[in-house]
Amino acid sequence: MAGSSLSPTPSSPSLQRGTYAPSTPTDLRSPCPIINAFANHGLIPRDGRNVSNSELDAAMRDIGLSIAVRKALIWGSFIPRRDEKPAGSGVWETLRRPWEWVQWQLGIRDADQKDSKGMACLNLDQLNRHNALEHDGSLTRRDDAQGDNHTAQPDLVRQLLQASSDGRIITTDEFAALRRRRTEQQRTDNSRLRLPWILHYVTAGQIAATQRIFGESSKGYAIPVSYARALFEEERLPVDEGWRRRQWLWPGMLEIVYQLLVVSLKVARTDQRSSDDRKK
What is the pTM of this model? Predict the structure, then answer.
């Protein structure tokens, strides 16, 4: 892959940056398979500890994300956490102290968390903090109320791979149907399921970004099953399977938002068909 440190997995073990090695029991990992793949490839610290924003930025650059997308994701990931709920309630109190409410609702890392160089950092397991970036209804994880919100579940990974009708690619329609199926499953399995309306767009955005990074443009950004297996089962970037980041026009904010809307509409149509079927 031109201009990137990633390379196919060598036959002899190596821990050079870009070389894949699965995580060990003492490593920290997040609910996001792509971020975990960064650690497994050594694009960020392999143990998942003391990850700096510059390291995360470089890793996202290695998979071809534009600077605007990288900065937005880093900003969200590095919000310091406020454990104490801000005083007061209601719209006025939120407007008076918006940053306090953002930190309480979306904060990830500890407020004073710094590495040996005095730079802000985070540990990957802090991304497991419920209802910050992590959320209910993941495609491959159980919900927080079910006890483990960050470990890929083999049955859910298998369900994702089997979403492909031809066994070769997973299309946008198939991702939308899977998104709907997981919502229905969790409504049955988790009585404390929390799916606010904004989460519809968050989950659609996750699918959209994955499609635009790893999907094939000639096939409507469908993702090859072999790529999905590497990403979701092994938490490995699918370099061995032939994936390369784009050389030109890296996925930017507008492109991902457009794909988000495509996915969102397809999920909504799937929801409507499911509702119509129940009424018959």
Answer: 0.89
